[in-house]
Design brief:
Blueprint: E1 5-11, E2 44-48, E3 63-65, E4 85-89, E5 93-97, E6 103-107, E7 113-117, E8 148-155, E9 161-164, H1 171-178, E10 196-200, E11 207-211, H2 226-233, E12 238-244, H3 253-267, E13 276-281, H4 292-301, E14 308-310, H5 319-332, E15 357-361, E16 366-370, H6 372-380, H7 386-398, H8 401-407, E17 415-418, E18 421-424
Parallel strand pairs: 1-3, 2-4, 9-11, 9-12, 12-13, 13-14, 16-17
Antiparallel strand pairs: 1-8, 2-7, 5-6, 5-8, 10-11, 15-16, 17-18
Length: 427
């Protein structure tokens, strides 16, 4: 089975504890504190490996942890940093928080490496706590705990073109003809269980095509292997509907296309916005290459802007015209890979040792909000995007910051400042 989903537990390293020690030298009877700081815990880092195409490495092992930081030592010696743990995944892998189902990272496009969990900071040694009244502090700060969460890895094949159709319409034969892929071909329903990828080479540049396994009605509700396969269509830019124009199995090609489109719409309505073409296959089995089925396909779908191309995947007739039409549609599509925005920030799961502050600066007449969690959030959120800004507003509400501002008497139109950024307050 194609391993395109896995659930694992990941944990970043704990920061090393700060050390308590004092200088003890022969001629220095009352040496001061010299406890070193603890080392930072290791990070959990996900990296794209171009040579991988499944998540099978994560099917039999459940837990992955980075190394803890070492404790600080005597004579101001800093503890060693814990080793990072690098987890390799195929391009197109989405990492979600298992509990909330929100996206932590999408390993696609330019995002080839991402720190998903940061290790805990090392604790400070007792040398940092010496004061004029406390010259021999016996306290050092413990290291910060690492973060442990359960994540879902989900692979969505990155292909320019998705090839869809009911079983036995000739998709695998077509893919074998036009690409370097070598799919297993046999006359059985649901022959293809894995999305087969192949590269179509053309004179002015090629494209990647994915044979999406045969869909059935109810796929969008998870019937059969529906969800497993529908997810792969999400990243494609153009869809080829392949139908059996010779009606070898007595199927109605028009109803087949409508049924698949219903499943696509039920799963994600945006999928129907993608350009589509119809490959009316098996014309080698039709006398003179045209018939009533092809005529009806044209009458039904060409008025909607969906072109019909009669082809034979066996003989190759009409295939070249179909590929040029697909190439033309791709040229009109946005060229960027679809990348899902980050929605979940694991760092905010850590408990902050310092509370946030909300004060009114009378001199500048602005409300000032500061604190470690605020600073982290601003660092991880793209507040220039509408989605990011809404997420940030939700965070302020959940943390009780908006309530604090209201207690101080904030009114609509007043200015709020957070680490150099200023916002107008509106309910």
């Amino acid at each position: 089975m194609f391993a395109d989903r896995a659930k694992i537990i990941i944990k970043s390293g704990k920061g090393g504890d700060g050390h308590v020690s004092f200088r003890r030298e022969k001629y220095v009877p009352n040496g001061g504190p010299d406890g070193g700081d603890g080392g930072k815990g290791g990070d959990i880092i996900f990296v794209v490996d171009k040579g991988m195409n499944t998540l099978s490495d994560y099917r039999h092992r459940r837990k992955f942890a980075a190394e803890n930081g070492e404790e600080g030592g005597k004579r101001n010696c800093h503890g060693k940093k814990g080793a990072d743990l690098i987890l390799k995944v195929p391009e197109g892998t989405i990492i979600r928080d298992a509990e909330s189902d929100k996206v932590i990272a999408d390993m696609s496009g330019d995002n080839q490496r991402q720190i998903v969990l940061r290790g805990g900071n090392g604790g400070l040694g007792n040398q940092h706590y010496a004061t004029s009244t406390m010259q021999a502090p016996k306290y050092a700060k413990p290291g910060q705990e690492g973060i442990e969460i359960e994540v879902r890895l989900e692979l969505k094949v990155i292909a320019d073109v998705g090839l869809v159709g009911f079983p036995n319409v000739g998709k695998s034969t077509f893919l074998a003809r036009v690409t370097n892929a070598q799919p297993k071909i046999a006359n059985y329903h649901f022959t293809t269980l894995n999305p087969n990828l192949g590269v179509v080479d053309m004179e002015d540049g090629g494209f990647v095509i994915a044979d999406i396994p045969g869909l059935i009605e109810g796929a969008s509700e998870g019937v059969g292997l529906g969800h497993e396969f529908l997810r792969h269509i999400e990243r494609t830019k153009v869809m080829i509907h392949m139908v059996d124009a010779a009606s070898v199995e007595g199927r109605d090609p028009i109803e087949d296309i409508l049924a698949i489109n219903r499943e696509l719409e039920a799963y994600n309505p945006k999928l129907l916005e993608k350009p589509q073409v119809i490959a009316a296959n098996k014309i080698d089995a039709i006398y003179e290459g045209e018939n009533e089925i092809i005529e009806n396909l044209r009458k039904t779908f060409e008025p909607e802007g969906i072109e019909v191309y009669p082809i034979s995947a066996v003989s190759g007739k009409g295939v070249k015209e179909l590929l040029f039409a697909v190439k033309a549609l791709l040229a009109e599509c946005p060229q960027d890979t679809i990348v899902f925005e980050q929605e979940f920030f694991p760092e905010l799961c850590q408990e902050d040792e310092e509370p946030y502050t909300v004060v009114f600066d009378e001199e500048d007449e602005v409300y000032v909000v500061e604190g470690p969690s605020i600073e982290k959030m601003l660092g991880y959120t793209n507040i220039d995007s509408e989605k990011g800004f809404l997420f940030f507003q939700k965070f302020l509400k959940q943390q009780g910051i908006l309530k604090e501002l209201e207690k101080l008497g904030i009114e609509e139109g007043d200015t709020v400042r957070m680490y150099g950024l200023e916002f107008d307050y509106y309910k």
